[in-house]
User: Fold these one by one.
Assistant:
Number 1:
Amino acid sequence: MHQPRVSTPFPGPKAREILALDRKFMSQSMTRLYPIVAEQGCGCWISDVDGNLFLDFTAGIAVNATGCLHPQITEAIEKQAHRLLHFSLADFYHPLGAQLAQRLAGLFPGGGDARVFLCNSGAEAVEAAIKLARWHTKRTHLVAFHGAFHGRTTGALALSDSKPIHKEGFGPLLAGVTHVPYSLSGLQFLDQTLFKAVVAGIFVEPIQGEHGVIVPENGFLGALRRLCDRHGILLVADEVQTGMGRTGKMFACEHWGIVPDIICVAKGVASGLPLGAIIAKAGVMDWPASKHTSTFGGNPLSCAAALATIDVLQGGFIENAAAMGKLLLRRLRDIAARKPLIREVRGRGLLIGIELARNGKPAIAEREALLETALRHGLLLLGGGESVVRMCPALVVTAEEIDIALEVFENALDEVLNERRAA
């Protein structure tokens, strides 16, 4: 079993060269909080250009569902790379596009007939869902929730309500969007308004990931489904982060027995290659030719990776996500009982948030210090919300790797607390 190894000053000399190159030539619009210059990966481990080794509990922001370099995925990619890299589904056909559509349609909850549109990313999937909802219902208005994150393209950004900085300076955004609280009270407010007759779709993350792994209250998603049914509104589940087995089921909405009208997927669907999709009830995906298309969406290489990914996930790693998620939650809650800085540990499967608070207020500085300290000791973590640490390792993670991660996490937390006391 590997152990994290950070043996050079961080960032190391080779990394500093790349960072300087990046600052000169790359758009600086990305967040880029962590000065890691990755070179190679294997499973849940990442090595950088200076030879440091990190245990990765981010999975490329929940993208590397099967970990790095899973042999079944790399074999599928290599075989396809020698056959055909691109042949556009916008105007032609290739076998893997139809085969992947069949597989994704077969994953649709509830077992009903479904159709699939293939694109390149989660934001593109959300944009496609916006257009399909408006086309199918012949309505214009859209509803999303406070705290939502649906992407950074103009339509997806209009639906998002996670951080003000995401929208500042980019208006006007897509018109006709209303946000309500991510709660039963928000649904009651919506149900009592008069404009619901013009609502085409309600977009919801079954678990809000970027906002801090917010798990909805019991009854929320069921009430949302019933509200949509009463008023002829399409329910769109954004499963970009929560889908493809991450929460211990193929889709997070299945934890609550909910069948959406449209599901948006991306991130883990192709184990790191760019691919997104919407999966919709067959009767909903009724738009005709030329209404929506994509030059690169469903390219053969990404389709090959996605077909192999589904095989691997269904071969036992969704169950592993459920089992390892329960272990990780239990162990983190044990740590929380010893550390007053942790307000709450929450999540499903391998999407977990650890909320930090001091004197009843979000511990923002402590969260940032914890992420940096864990990084210096070889553990990669993500932030979320105001003061949440997010853990979303690859679905191939083992109990031994969880042991290592939690040892580093708790030691880093103690280091941060000691530094705050000394200050």
Note: The chain has a mean pLDDT of 95.
Number 2:
Amino acid sequence: MKEIKSSVAEGFSITRGGPLHWLLLRLGHAGDERQRVVRRALAAVLITWLPLLVLSLVQGEAYDPHIKIPFLRDLAVNVRFLIAVPILILAESGIDKRWHTLALEFLRSGLVTAKELPSFEVVIEKTARLRDRVLPEVLLMVAAVLPAIFLRTELLMSGVSNWHTAGVGSGEVSSAGWWFNLVSTPVFRLLCFRWLWRLFLWTSFLRRVSRLNLYLVATHTDRAAGLGFLSEGQKAFSPIVFAMGAVIAAQVANTIAYQGATLSSQKVPMIGYAVIAILALVAPLLVVAPVLLKIKRKALREYGALVTIHDQLFDQKWIQKKGPPGEVILGNPDASSLCDLGNSFAVIREMGIVPIDKPTLITLALAAALPMVPVVLYATPADELIRAVLKMLG
């Protein structure tokens, strides 16, 4: 089968578009080149974290021993802006390239035939137009900034003195606290909201593509009628899952270190995040479930009837001895075809309706759990850790 080419599909991208992208393009900071991506991540750190450090140093709140949570000991805020923010930016090019590869896979694998190519290109063009709309990104910006209007400051901790306030015991918001509330946190929120928007765009793309007349084969060995490759698109999100997990873990660490919480009391947010993250990334693949369910049901009927007819002929020939006299079953293609049909029917029976595989689920679970490991080690007494390790080894 000759591979179908499409210049429209070659230009497929979820991230290279929209008002913010055009602004970065005009400023010379847009692009997937490693140097430009690193430059954007560094600029985000300089905007979100560095002013907080400088302002807290000026006001003596960076490491004041009289403050319960000075800036340099605030795990949550430092992890958020020094680890999570750069990852949210650095992950852009890798995830977009993976999505681009998956879009082209519809052509390489023959799922989109020459007859369906114009419709496939229309889907890509609609996705690009939706990506480039101004209103969605304006709404994202409003949603990112709006909480700062109604809240004096987004305190990550409550009930203890911290660098957000000007002076020990003061209720007045410090300069660093205002920057945190009006600049740093909105930037972080905007980065998170943009990834949700991009995930929506990818989901919309998959939904539209699934409605095309794709050449799906129920007996495909990926147990997803040929759509198993889509699982790789969700696996690419592991850096985002790790980044947000680090934010949750750092907040939990703050609660344990400064508010006297225990590890057991924080199990709900830690486990809850992992479950929600995995479900959120499996959800986009649910849009192809109706198509796969229809394919599976149809194949079960058709192959079921074919297997029944073949088994009846096999029974008549070899069990009831109605075949040519003297013929032996050893090496006869009848037995081989019986086995092949049985295997094909078994593949159809095992076919899933959501193209997600175990390696992808394991990768996402590890990405969510890994940031929690330092918290567990910090909050668990040394003797308990030693006993746990010895128990594992023994």
Note: The longest helix spans residues 175-210.
Number 3:
Amino acid sequence: MRLSPRTFVALACLAVPLACHAADRTADAPPPALATASAAPSNTVIASAEARAASSATPATTFVPARVVDDGQHAMGTHVSFAAYTTPTTGEAAIRAAFEAAGAEIRRIDQLMTTWRPDSELSRVNEAAGKTKLAVNPETFDVVKAAIHTSEISEGTFDITFESLHGLWKFDQDLDPHPPSAAAVKAKLPLVGYRHIHLNDADHTIYLDQPGTKISLGGIAKGYAVDRAAAVLERAGLTSFFVQAGGDLYTRGKKPDGTEWAAGVRDPRGPEGSFFALLHVSDHAFSTAGDYERGYVVDGKRYHHIIDPRTGYPATASRSVTIWAPTALVADEIDDAVFILGPEKGLALVESLDGVGAVIVDAHNKVWVSKRLTGALEIIRQPTDAL
């Protein structure tokens, strides 16, 4: 599990006419080999080369779709980006208003499900662990319930009680390249386990039965927020768009030229922003988890932020996992589980879920592709091999 709600493996969906590309964090600059409009000021209209050519060759009355980009928002501890195309009935002003509303929705989810504020619902649930149950917002309750379901189907590899280990491993702003002692991990491990969470559907209450047990939705709330933002854009009438927050991307429809959006699968040992494969993504979500975003190497061993809640130590079976799923929530929660399970058990989990696919780079740099993505994934080159 990721150690905190701010520890996300981010996907940079760059503002280019033809593709969005995966990266281990929100990229301020695109891969140098790819033309991009991300160097342009945010909140500008970016048209594809085809659209510009059509504009010069056709009468002024002919409608030419233009790409509208907003990559200047920030929420949930990460960079938030939107892009959409204008239509004869939805112009730039309407699209920008929709982007603002979608960003506000992401920030609303952030405030609702954060554990970074001591007065938040989840912080109060954590404080009441072993004492009493507390009622939470129905949305928060439903996301916690979804998280528990994923724990049940993933052998406990996705587990929101990973927050109980908070302070042991330091991979965020408090980065400290010194692994905790085995004794410290052993002392905290009994606090971890989704079976410590008890839900009551009748009154939307959560009770943690072990003092010291804590929960965090850092591994799932961002995906849920992306889905909610996408719903805002759909209600505004947008039919071709993407929304991306850190490591979570959702795309809707196809581009005006009929092609799909595309996302690059990050090379886990390559330079920042590099990718080894491309995957077309329309009406689907895309999320990547990797061991390269937050971590350090000590005595020839890599320590990173994706912790196996069963052991209390960083997972070792994978270097990166990319999930293709119907919703960003599913992609967000499944990528960590598959990363921890490893390629064989991870792919078995993926194949059991409707509309879900995966690309895995295992600990030995071997690439595994699920059945649903076989033939759809374009492998450009083999991933870089390094520690």
Note: The radius of gyration is 21 Å.
Number 4:
Amino acid sequence: MMKFKANRSSYYFLGTALLIIIGLQVLFSTGILNSFWNTIIRQGAVIAMVALGLNLIYGFNGQFSLGQWGFYAIGAYAAADVTFRWTQNTSADGLVVLLLADAFMALALWGIARLVKRVRGMDTLSAFAIYLVGVIASVFLAVFVSKILTSPVTSLLNALPETWSLQIVFFFAVVLAGILAAEISYLFGLPVLTLGSDYFGIATLGFTIIMKVLADNSDRLLGFEEMKGARGMIGIPKIATWLWIAFFLLITIIIIRNILHSSYGRAIISVREDELAAKAMGIDVAKQKILTFVLGSLFAGLAGGLYAHINGFLHPSKFDFIQSFDPLIIVVFGGLGSISGTVVASFAWALVLEGVLRLVLPPGFESWRYVVYPLILLIMMLLRPSGLLGGFEFPFIKTVLPPLKKKENNENSAGGEVL
């Protein structure tokens, strides 16, 4: 793997990012930008994380996926349930269960993967059944062990100032919700990633629909009465500030950039270009596909956890499969395989379509959004097929090659005589 060293472009990027983040925070704090624009910009940053994850899967790895919105929903409801239980009951039971479930599921998936490798000739569905049993057993074990650990963890958090404890619970809720989405994506990806790209897209669309149905029946089918099913979940603390969301977005950009500049990133892109050639070069195509799918789902889960704490309300209609096309439109609009284009297009989507047009156009425009979006996308594809920024990337995101070292022998002017 490549070793990354800080260079001038890194300092420029981080300095510019910090100036933008702090500048927007000053505008929000002074009231120059009101709460409406505050919400719009935060939503733009959240959708940027979802779109970046999808761009990693589709733009860089070539796997057409419509499942981002399903993992977005998993992250939203998982994180919201943890903070809701803490604010309503001052109990860390939700946090402890989620933490243990993530840990036990990770151990189960790792152990079963090692076991399956030793069994020759096992078909995909049989292996998936073993994984599924292991995951279900991990969840039940997590619920059982949580009864022992909930009390000391709650006492530890209550010993801290109330503001600190809430922020700590929120941070871990978002991170653990993202990990949960990643683990579920690994389990889901085991059987469906063996399909072709088109069939994989249909399977992921089905996954998004399943998540919407589960959200509609979360109170009766899953037993989470606080989620209230189709009525919508209320009482979620509104603690996803601009600084929190900007922090997670910045980390997402840096992680994706570093992955793409590593040997793993080269392998990911090679699978998109030609799977047969990648196999011939010794690249494990299945491993690269599942790795990319899990990473992209991780960022969608993190974004969902942040989104749940912007408005303090979740409704299953927000995660309808129709809206699952939003990140896909953003990725195509910004440019497939372009990190910079995806980020710019995400904020443009939020500021223009969700902000400016809502203020300029008459009431009822919302019902025309699914007419306006395709028209804008069609015009973009006709006039600029490569996307908004095309092949342009910010200097920090580009691969910067190190200067060639001069040979010490006969490469310099002070070299010896040539015989």
Note: The chain has one domain: 8-383.
